[in-house]
Specification:
The protein is α+β, with helices and mostly antiparallel strands. Among the domains are: 35-105, Orthogonal Bundle (Arc Repressor Mutant, subunit A), CATH 1.10.10.10; 123-262, 3-Layer(aba) Sandwich (Chorismate lyase), CATH 3.40.1410. It has seven helices and eleven strands. It has helices at 41-57, 68-75, 79-91, 143-150, 189-193, 197-205, 223-229; strands at residues 95-98, 102-105, 112-113, 130-141, 157-167, 170-180, 209-220, 236-246, 251-260, 267-272, 300-306. The longest helix is centred in the N-terminal third of the chain and has 17 residues, at 41-57. It is elongated, with a radius of gyration of 26 Å. The two termini are 41 Å apart.
Length: 310
């Protein structure tokens, strides 16, 4: 883990009196021995987790990792300790356990840049082959909540679209789109199932998206969502909520989406302008950065990586 090894006190008795035996480094504990309650048990689990992660990094998605028996011998740990570490990695979506078959490296997570620069909305294609399958496509009144977001009367007509997003044929997300009907007369199912929706809005309807505000938070899937996404009920997920505006600042799309939590990660890249002129630091602090880390008031440009598909 990069830190110093913890000091280990060795208890020894007088010669021939049967004092405490010092365990051999790397020796496997007795089956069922509760490593978690012994001194150093947490550190041991971390070392096991790191060792398994190293194996994962050396393999490809879908490859099997060695059996429990083999790993216990290789790492010198008991089965409870190994299982605890593997369970953590399964929960984190790094490994996949298949009943009767073993444990495998999980499919690679999708990471995609949301906003490429400060001046334009950029939605580059994410890894894999993305397709859409319509679950519902209808017109309906906006209602109070969606109407407020889109700056419409509650009675104004909108297109409501529910679609399943797939990557390489595997279900990844359920998207719920709300688009003012007056902006996109003649919107077709084909536009929603094939190609880039934002490109269709631009070329077919003259709507030029320019800016989006997106919130992301953890959630779990409902029973109905679980059936569509082919995951267990209450499976971890990411809730994306996005409001997209055109070049005039007019809201053109409100979307809320449920993405499988085992296939995505969010990465923020910060660019620090070290040579900028000092300025009074603003109130509060940048999310994820402890207050006081940038005492000179240097501007911070942030680029967030996540998943957005049109």
């Amino acid at each position: 883990m990069g830190g110093r090894e913890p000091a280990t006190a060795t208890a020894t008795g007088a010669a021939g009196t049967g004092g405490s035996e010092t365990p051999r480094p790397g020796a496997a504990p007795r089956e069922g021995e509760p490593d978690g309650v012994r001194p150093g048990g947490v550190l041991k689990r971390e070392r096991v987790r790191d060792a398994v992660l190293t194996m994962v990094e050396e393999r490809n998605p879908g490859d099997a990792i060695p059996s429990e028996r083999t790993l216990c011998v290789q790492l010198g740990v008991s089965r409870p300790t190994l299982r605890a570490a593997v369970d953590e990695l399964v929960t984190a979506g790094i490994l996949v356990r298949e009943h009767g078959r073993g444990v495998f490296v999980a499919p690679e997570k999708i990471t995609q840049e949301l906003v490429q620069d400060r001046y334009s909305l950029s939605v580059p294609q994410a890894a894999g082959t993305w397709t859409s399958r319509l679950l519902e496509f209808t017109t309906m009144p906006a209602g109070a909540r969606v109407g407020r977001k889109l700056r419409l009367s509650p009675a104004a007509e909108i297109f409501y679209v529910a679609r399943l997003r797939l990557v390489d044929g595997s279900p990844m997300a359920i998207e719920h789109l709300h688009i003012p009907a007056a902006l996109v007369p003649g919107l077709t199912a084909r536009e929603l199932e094939h190609g880039d929706l934002y490109q269709h809005l631009r070329t077919q309807h003259g709507v030029h998206v320019s800016e989006a505000t997106q919130a992301i938070e953890p959630t779990v899937v409902t029973r109905a969502e679980a059936e569509v996404l082919d995951v267990p009920e209450l499976f971890p997920a990411l809730l994306f909520e996005r409001l997209t505006s055109d070049s005039t600042g007019r809201p053109v799309e409100y979307v809320h989406s449920i993405y499988r939590g085992d296939r995505y990660r969010i990465v923020s890249r910060l660019k620090l302008a070290a040579d900028a002129a000092p300025a009074e630091p603003p109130a509060g602090h940048h999310p994820g950065i402890p207050p006081g880390d940038f005492t000179h008031g240097n501007p911070v440009a942030a680029s967030t990586l996540g998943d957005v598909q049109g």
